[in-house]
Specification:
Elements (H helix, E strand, L loop, with lengths): L4 E4 L4 E4 L8 E5 L10 H20 L3 E5 L6 H10 L3 H18 L15 H13 L3 E4 L2 E4 L15 H7 L14 E6 L14 E3 L1 H13 L3 E7 L3 H16 L5 E7 L2 E3 L2 E2 L10 H5 L4 H8 L8 E2 L2 H18 L10 H8 L4 H16 L3 H13 L7 H6 L5 H16 L3 H13 L2 E6 L2 E6 L1
Parallel strand pairs: 3-4, 3-9, 9-10, 11-13
Antiparallel strand pairs: 1-2, 5-6, 6-7, 7-8, 11-12, 14-15
The chain binds zinc ion.
Zinc ion binds next to α7.
Length: 446
């Protein structure tokens, strides 16, 4: 069996993956805050960690993948008020849209997808434990985590307490004992979502959600915690502080994996910069599998510069692979080089390069390579469509092509071969190739 090695942000080094319990691998990834459609930057971890989970499932019999839905957040409150809809209606609509986008990208649903609002009791219990253990305090309807109560706070982001204090906002809330203390619970006004708690009517801070939900489904310690690079500080640092102090362990997750940013002309794609493209917008003209492929062309820890041209190139690369694998039955095992590439800190660019090598071998008549290509592509969540459906496409002009083919048949039946040839040439000029067979004429895009 090829070994698995992943870069661990906690140690800043690539380490052999050694599960806490090899009979049950447990992984958590931070999910979306459901106030709007996701953009391509948000889609990157969805696709990358789907590949990671597929790889883990190949190596281990039992894997539990948890990805939460943050459905209580000030951005959600603001958006619901703006649109004049209830918070529940907004979060349900956006969650459904998120699921549609994930499915179009070929990413399987996680085993568990908890909603934060279903776990408020777990959060209240955890906050109570933190207060009891002297790691948190209530003040003016808030509960704050006391950063100075944790001797080794800051291990993940490697920030010293002095740096944290210097970096804290100048207008520190007066009820904070220390400027770097962070919110576990905050009071809600009448028009805000809230729950009764020992500290009054209020709602949880964002960080405590993931600590409570990961513990609920994966236990106090687990194997991998994943998310985007921008979550290292403060979100993941604070998750670690809460979970370790509440449960009394040296670790929360053993391995912390972080994906790099999606950039546009070198700048991070983000809602705040306004340089984002939603997944739904790209899907209007391009296949989800092409977006998926494009997102796998860079190593996950490196930045990925996104462009529509990149998606077009990805489609063309996939066309090559689909043609080479046409009619293949997947081999029982993926190719060992593909497994080795993915096992080497999820090196998807090397895995894709190997798929193209296998395609070249398949095109020369190597049937074993063809079967290995199919099995290996499936490990990456690629080549999952039927070849004829892939090439036929699902564009709106299919009906027009079918009509042109019918007109050509009529011309042939009338022995008007010049007209039949003209229709064929016109279609060819548009990149539509016709193949006549005893069963009729089939077409595909060049
Ligand atoms: Zn989280």
């Amino acid at each position: 069996m090829t070994s698995l090695n992943f870069y661990n942000t906690l140690s800043r080094s690539k380490e052999p993956f050694e599960p806490l319990d090899a009979s049950h691998i447990r992984i958590y990834a931070c999910g979306p805050t459901v106030y709007d459609r996701i953009h391509v930057g948000n889609a990157r971890p969805v696709v990358l960690f789907d590949v990671l989970v597929r790889l883990l499932r190949h190596h281990y019999d039992r894997v539990t993948y948890v990805r939460n839905i943050t459905d209580v957040d000030d951005k959600i409150n603001a958006r619901a008020a703006e649109e004049g809809v209830s918070i529940r209606a907004l979060t349900e609509g956006t969650t459904n849209a998120f699921h549609e986008d994930c499915a179009a990208l070929g990413s399987a649903r996680p085993d568990v997808e908890p909603r934060a609002t279903d776990h408020i009791d777990d959060m209240i219990t955890m906050i109570t434990t933190l207060i009891d253990k002297g790691h948190a305090y209530a003040a003016e309807g808030h509960v704050l985590f006391s950063v100075t109560s944790m001797a080794d706070y800051g291990q993940l982001s490697r920030r010293s307490l002095d740096e944290l204090i210097a970096g804290a906002r100048v207008d520190v809330a007066p009820f904070k004992r220390d400027p770097s203390d962070f919110v576990l619970w905050k009071p809600s006004g009448e028009d805000q979502p809230g729950w009764d708690s020992p500290w009054g009517y209020g709602r949880p801070g964002w960080h405590i959600e993931c600590s409570a939900m990961s513990a609920a489904f994966l236990g106090e310690t687990f194997d991998i915690h994943a998310g985007g690079l921008d979550l290292i500080f403060p979100h993941h640092e604070n998750e670690i502080a809460q979970s370790r102090c509440a449960h009394g362990h040296d670790i929360m997750a053993k391995t912390w994996m972080h994906n790099g940013y999606v950039t546009v002309d070198g700048e991070k794609m983000s809602k705040s910069l306004g340089n984002f493209t939603t997944v739904a917008d790209v899907l209007a003209d391009h296949k989800g599998e092409a977006i998926r492929y494009a997102l796998l062309t860079a190593h996950y820890r490196a930045p990925l510069d996104f462009s529509i041209n990149g998606v077009v190139e990805a489609k063309s690369a996939l066309d090559t692979l689909y043609r080479a694998a046409e009619g293949a039955t997947a081999a029982a095992e993926p190719d060992e080089h593909v497994l080795a590439a993915l096992g080497d800190d999820l090196n998807t660019p090397n895995a894709l390069a190997r798929l193209h090598e296998l395609a070249r071998m398949a095109n020369k008549g190597d049937d074993a390579a063809k079967s290995a290509l199919k099995a290996s592509a499936e490990l990456l969540g690629l080549l999952c469509e039927d070849c004829s459906i892939w090439f036929k496409g699902d564009g709106g002009d299919d009906a027009a092509i079918d009509a042109a083919i019918a007109a050509r048949q009529t011309a042939k039946a009338n022995k008007d071969f010049a007209e039949a040839d003209r229709i064929r040439d016109d279609l060819a000029a548009e990149g539509i190739l016709l193949e006549d067979s005893p069963e009729g004429t089939i077409w595909r895009r060049k």
